[in-house]
Amino acid sequence: MLAALLALLWGEAAAAQSGLGVQARLLDEGTSLTTSRDVIALRLALSQPVPFRVRMLANPPRMVLDVNTLDWGGTRLGADLSQRVPVGAVRTGHLSDGWARLVVDLTAPFALHLSEQRVTEETGRAVINLDLHRVTLEEFERLAQNEVEFAARTSAALLHPDAPVLPAPAESARKPLVMLDPGHGGIDPGAERGGVREADLVLDFARELREVLLRRGVFEVGMTRNADEFVSLDGRIRAARAAGADLLLSLHADALPEGIATGTVIYLLGDEASDDSAAYLAERHDRADLLAGVDLNRNTDEIARVLMSVAWQDTAPRARGLADALVAGMGAADIRLHRRPVQSGAFTVLRAVDMPSALIELGFMSSPRDLANLQDAAWRQRMAEAIADGLEIWHREDLAQQALRRH
Predict the structure, then answer these.
(1) What is the DSSP letter of 154?
(2) How many C-beta neighbours within 10 Å does residue 136 have?
(3) Do 221 and 341 fall within a single domain?
(4) Buried b (16+ CB within 10 A) or exposed e, 209-218
(5) What is the pLDDT of residues 287-328, one digit of tens each?
(6) Contacts of 138 (CB under 8 A, 6+ apart)
(7) What is the CATH number of the domain that holds 270?
(8) Quick one: how far is CA 198 from the chain centroid?
């Protein structure tokens, strides 16, 4: 009942159809599949970076690429390949859990030699590069056997007709999905200092953090926006739900009129602001939606309030654990924190009561020291690694707490 209510309140179905900035598109220019006797090179040009996973499977031999999420469009990869190349067929489709899949049938033993995603900062576009090199049959079978236990949930329409259907993976094997939410964008540039816009700073940092997280391989990562575009606060939550996110991190670098705040602050949802600054920031974020003509006056009936309160009783401790873990990760990396590093406020973007969420003020643009840090590549890298450390700490502790609750 609660899930249905939340879907009604936030319009999850509409978000899933529209993508709201989380679904990438395959671009014709830059996409290719080239082959020779010993090398297969696949290039997928994308409108934005995406989490992906690739594996080699046997019986029959094939490469399986899963992408979250991608519109294949009118893909015709492999349509012009001759019968003499080591690629038998190429198929694309979508799985029931929202992932997109590409299957390349092989007529000879190959192994994955290169798997990478390159992002162009100027455009926000990405290219997935996959290179396969020919190997001996024994080497291929050994590598493929090691992959079987990690194979993703399969779709019968995408499998080779003679291939066995693999069982769904255990829930523990599923990587949690972190939804990064770069604040502001489009008609709402956020804070501005000396020609520098908050919307640009946090988008650049979100892309850097995403790459750090994906490289570590513990989490899948989505983004509510990957360009200078406006996404409503409600739309950011719906985008997280549409992607199946396990937690939401909203990234900001605001400025305060007094100019006295400095250091990183992590905000959690609270009906009452922890101080005047938190109240000011929460109100300022809502004003961006008013600027775009978004209706903020929708009322939630009393039954909905009760049900959401019940859900929040479970989510609130997990969100607090998330904040504490992030503080621990930043402290270990010697990141300068605000004197009160964890605070609360009535931030609309944190009202997803069915998933832990936090708003990170990376620093305050009204502080010259913070602004210099936000523009320093070395500091941003250290911060990204610190946040990744904190997320891993939280994930381990959260899994342990969930196991205790089940017993």
Answers:
(1) P
(2) 10
(3) yes
(4) bbbbbbeeee
(5) 444 344 434 344 444 434 444 454 456 788 899 999 999 999
(6) none
(7) 3.40.630.40
(8) 20
